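During the first year of the project, the team set up a workflow for recording each protein of interest as an amino acid sequence followed immediately by a discrete structure-token representation. This format lets reviewers and collaborators read both layers of information side by side without switching files. As required by the reporting guidelines, we include two representative entries from the current panel. The first entry is reproduced here exactly as it appears in our internal archive.
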Amino acid sequence: MDGRMVMLAMMGGAVPDYTTPLGAILRKRLRIMGSTLRNRSLEYKAELVRSFWQHAETAFQTNRLEAVVDQVFDWTEVAQAHTLMESNANQGKIVLKVIS
């Protein structure tokens, strides 16, 4: 009840065409929000990152929040990392290790 559904971008492609259950949305007083960063300016994206970090830095430093990492690759294995990303089989971030 009184929930929110937030849709950010569509990395998997377009949303399938299906009938939206408007009655259920109305009964539950659901708020639906959508956004994408693709057409935003670099300044907007930089400010978004700064704002997020200001809000979440302490939680990351105290381990109340953790980044979900699927796999870490050496930078020389960039092709394998990209293949994993293209397959959409990862369950977290794909990291390229640049410093030994």
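The second entry, processed by the same pipeline in the following quarter, appears below.
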Amino acid sequence: MAINIVEALQKRLGLRSVEKIDVNATHQSETMHPEKTDHAAQAAVAAVLVALYRFGKSDEGAASLAGTRPGNCLQTIFDNKADFAVERVASYADISQEEARRLMTTAADEAVALVHGNVGNECSPAQIKAYLASQRHNILVYLPAELEMGKILDDTALDDRTNKMEGPVSSFMHFIENLMAPGDRTRTEAFRRDDEFFGRKNS
């Protein structure tokens, strides 16, 4: 069974304060244990991993990850959206954009290293796609909706509260979602710019 990439990344970064999102919280932006949560780490880890999942679900993205090694992975997985993501993480965590970028850059490099370590250094794009698909629910239960990563990554389903629900029935449904999650779009399609959303951010 594949390791849980969120738990593995927390351990690799020495973090003990990234918590699952409380599905009963307004807009699902707060964690189940807010008193224990490091919101900077929460936002950085969740944002990076959901971008890694989204990027690696396309054929082109998975092929790129197969040949990628740690070093500026943040730009790779977010493509032209890294600045918007950094802004959202900084706002959510109430930290500077410089600090947010530092945290996210470290998390991105370590996350890509984890993928290679779990799949194998000679991994194929197909293996990367399969592994990241299996991690979809593991990642989304930690993703604060306030980050609006679904809008940034052009996949609003990522912010759906049902992704954060757990239990026997929910777990089965998430298993089906993982199998059915789209993975054949090109990188251009996967990162299509939402002019209305980004125009609002720049206004």
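For the second entry, the following points were noted during internal review. The radius of gyration is 16 Å. Residues 97-119 form the longest helix (23 residues). Both points are flagged for discussion at the upcoming steering committee meeting.
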